[in-house]
Structure formats: structure tokens, C-alpha cells
Amino acid sequence: MVEIAFWTCLSLLVYAQIGYPLLLAALARVRAGRLAATTAAAPLPSVSLIVAAYDEGAVIGAKVANALALDYPRERLEVIVASDGSADGTISESHRAGADVVLDLPRGGKIVAQDAAVARARGDLLVFSDANSTWEPDALSSLVAAFHDPNVGYACGQVTFVNDGGTNQEGLYWRYEMALRSLESRLCSITAGNGAIYATRAEAYINVDPVMGHDLSFPFNMVKRGWRAVYVPAARATEKMVPSIEGEFSRKRRMMSHAWPIVLHGGLLSPRGYPPLYALMIVSHRILRYAAPFAHVVLLAASAALIGSGAFYAAAFAAQIALLAAAVLAGTIRLRPLLVARYYVLTTASVAAGLWDHLRHGTSAGWEPADGTR
To answer: What span, in angstroms and rounded, lies between the C-alpha atoms of 56 and 99?
Structure first.
């Protein structure tokens, strides 16, 4: 039984991190002749660009200015700032920067603020962004172009995380993640989005539980409703990342406390409505990713129990101890390989920590900007 546990956990971890990307790449090669999107030129739709903001006075003016400077007809663009109970200068700065609509809402959480903005929006497309995201001039046009395909209900762009000399390795992971999403999008639909740059058709918008974010809940729910959810790498945005790996652990722990309700209660685990290939993507990219910390613990325990049963088991145990030791050493020695090990260990642990937080005291709909990202 211990050997079965060892090989099962090892196989699942290797498949999730390496086997799944290779499988997607192989499928993309096999289906290369059938991957062209069904698109056609169409009149530019009207767009409502929505920014939910809580105490974003320091950056919201620049965000509104960035939105108004996008290469998109001004008469087709509506900029809405939904202030979620801000107590600083968010509202006045939004007005001063030229936002078309500024909502002064009571504190209710990001999703509640976004829902309120959607209720006021007039655009054919609902476009969303974080207050600290900066878009390239052609980002909106590129994002809108995805909706020329009538089957697309959701589209997210490419976000690049910038780091001014901190220890965080999120940029390395995010490049890997974007490569996966690009393959998923070509083959079927993506399994998650990002908050920096994404859009939905107005008729496809979904009101979700306020504790459940759009990033994870929108793509799979769109697929269940018959839409495609796609990734548009030409729609580019940048965001400042949390400077430290420890800060990234805290950020991801908070994110996972909002993701676990979607996994456990929000329909992610229900296969109803999933095409077969998309079901495989959900299992491979989401379920196995969230099972990783528990698989690592079982693998380490099984390796320790099997040390005397062969050289491979001893080597596997030594490799895992080396990974943990490297993560610890990175706290004092800032070498890139050690920092990558620390990032992997802490961000994997954040998945379990988020579950613990959710089970222990539930998940609040409230949110605050992550430290060091403004």
C-alpha cells in the first residue's frame, strides 16, 4: 500500500507539472489543421471598462488615464470606477481623471462592486481590469477582436508581472502558466483567467457568490453554458508583483481561500456540461494542481517509509529533503535556484493554507490590495 501511494502521488505530480503540458502540445500538433478560429470582421462593439477599487487613490487616476488613452474609439468606450467603500481619495481622483461613471458603494467586496458596475454599464462587452494594471495601447482592440467569434463568451489577455529587485519568482511561474493557457485556448477553452485584463459579453455575464472570484469561476461556467473561454496573448497588460516570496505566499493564500469555495461548492468538480477534452483539462490543470500539497506530503511520508526498499526510494526521499532545504536556505542566501525552490514550496503550501482558512472561519467577500503592488 505504501508503494502504491508513492507511485500514485509521484505519477500525479509529474503528470500535472510536465506530462500535461506535453500532452497539450502533442494534441495541438495533431489538431493543427483544425485549430483556426471562426472569426470575421465585425463593427466595433461598445465597451464598458470596469475597475473595482478599494482605497486606490494612489493609482486610480493613472488607471483611468490609461483606459482613456487606449487605441479605441472614445464614443464606443465607457469607463466605470466602482469604489467599494473607499475611505481615501479614490472617488475624487476618478472624477478628476475623467471616468464616465463613478460609483460610491458601501463596502461589500470586489464581486459586489463589479456586479453594481455591470448593472449600470451600457456596453455590448463588459471589460474588467485591476486598478494597478497598465494596458498597452492596443490591448483593448486585441481583446475585443476575440469576440468576432460568436462562440466566445469570455476572453482574458496576457499580464506580465514586474519586479523591482525583490525575491518573488511569480514571473517565472506565470510564463509557464501562460504557455499552458495558450495551448488550452487553441484546443478548447482555458480553465482560469486573470483579474488584470479580461472581458465577457454582456449577455454572458454571470452573477457569482461574492466570495468566489471571476478568475476561476467564469471560464468553466462559460463552457458549461455553451460559450468558449479564450486567451488573447496580444492583449497585454503589466502589474507590479508582490516583492517577496513570503508576500506572494500570503497573496496566494488569500486567493485560494476564495478558490476553494468554487472547487467545493461552486460547480468546478461537477462534470455536467463539460466537453470531454475540457473535463480532462479541468482535472489536469485545476484539480491536480489543488491536490499537489497533499500529494507532496504523502509522497514524502511514503519515501521515508520505503528508504530501505531500494535505491530509487532513497534517492526520491533525498531529493525532497534537498528541495525543502533549498527553500529554507533561500531565506538567507539569495541564489536564483534556491529562490525558485522557496517559491515552489511556499506557493504549493499556500493552496493547503487557503483551504485551512476557508474551513476554519469561512471566506470573506472583502478584499484589500496586496502589499507592495501599488
So the answer is: 14
For residues 211, 213, 214, 219, the Cα torsion angle rounded to the nearest 10 degrees is: -100
| Packed helices 245-265 and 214-224: angle between N→C axes, nearest 10 degrees | 30
Sheet hosting strand 228-240, strand order edge to edge? 101-105, 77-84, 47-53, 125-129, 198-201, 152-162, 228-240, 134-135
Dump pLDDT digits (tens) for 44-79.
Answer: 999 999 999 999 999 999 999 999 999 999 999 999
Burial class of residue 261, CB neighbours in 10 A (0-12, 13-18, 19+): buried
For 112, residues 6+ apart whose C-beta sits below 8 A from its C-beta are 84, 105, 210, 365
Tell me the angle at which helices 20-30 and 170-187 cross, rounded to the nearest 10 degrees.
40
Which CATH number is 34-242 given?
3.90.550.10
Nearest to 80 by CA among 118, 25, 26: 118
- Interatomic CA distance for residues 251 and 272, integer angstroms: 31
Beta-bridge partner residues of 199: 127, 155
- Tell me whether residue 336 is exposed, middle or buried, using C-beta atoms within 10 angstroms of its C-beta: 0 to 12, 13 to 18, 19 or more: exposed
Helix (H) or strand (E) segment spanning residue 171? helix 170-187
What pairs with residue 79 in β-bridges? 49
- pTM of the model as a whole: 0.90
Cα dist. 235→18, 67, 148 in Å? 27, 13, 15
Q: How far apart are CA 13 and CA 291, in angstroms?
A: 9
